[in-house]
Amino acid sequence: MKGIALRKIPVAVVTGGARGIGLAIAEWFLTHGHRVVLLDIDRRQLAKTARALGDSARVMAVGCDVSNAKQVKSAVSRVVKGFGRIDALINNAGIAVFKPVLETSLKEWTQVLSTNLSGPFICTQACVPVMLRSGGGSIVNIASISGLRASALRVAYGTSKAGLIHLTKQLAAELGTVGIRVNCVAPGPVETAMAKLVHTAAIRRDYHDSIPLNRYGTMEEIADAVGHLCSPAASYVNGQTLAVDGGFDATGIGLPTLRRNAGAKGRR
Ligand code: NDP
What we know:
Layout: H1 3-7, E1 11-15, H2 20-31, E2 35-40, H3 43-53, E3 59-63, H4 69-83, E4 88-91, H5 106-133, E5 137-142, H6 155-175, E6 180-187, H7 193-198, H8 201-210, H9 219-230, E7 241-244, H10 255-267
Parallel strand pairs: 1-2, 1-4, 2-3, 4-5, 5-6, 6-7
Helix pairs in contact: 2-9, 4-5, 5-6
């Protein structure tokens, strides 16, 4: 495709896009006709992923720590130089520390908050002026069920994600007036490579018990929700958090017992 035609193709910036959910989101945008920028702190994985995607005209990979304003500014300058526009920003990069409150160090707390909450703030500040030049766009923040419901060992992670849910509303209130919609996706447990590796059988059983759909989500299901929120089909959706969690957030106490009882009645 010729340069001028290429420059009209919308651009989605996905942080933490080198692997996992971020990569699935990037693939959704590629499949739906966008160009994609992957921003990630893991430069080695980033290079590997960019090679595997094998589409240098439509994929740009930029090494960058989202919690470092200077690095983000320089990354966005590279995007402007290479791709000329930004239409969607997906604040997906996130880290987790799962420890009890008294064992969570101030350093760990600060790292989690810096990546999961300051990162989206910094990236939004850097990308919005570019988005405005081509008439607006859409931002989606990736929070978590842990930002909606509290749980043991998630004092830093859960608080950072709850903050991100509120940041979404703050940004929606301000940026909606200039043509940028801001929404949030809160995934339940997702079947990533990491989850396959670290979730024990007991943890899996607990999750299945708490989720009406009785399973983990897939990375593609999260990507579909993000893509929908960025698409014209969601043109009047702003400031919302969509839990993509099989009904986890909707349920109350006693689900496993009630489900067993319902099953027994159904068989009668
Ligand atoms: P992964 O850890 O698989 O991928 C995240 C990517 O982001 C990694 O490449 C990571 O690099 C990178 N990253 C971490 N810190 C930074 C930073 N400061 N700047 C730029 N890139 C960074 O995560 P998942 O795909 O599992 O999760 C993606 C998002 O979804 C996260 O925000 C997570 O909290 C959220 N989520 C995930 C769930 C799940 O079940 N997986 C459930 C609910 C929410 P490195 O490997 O070097 O850290």
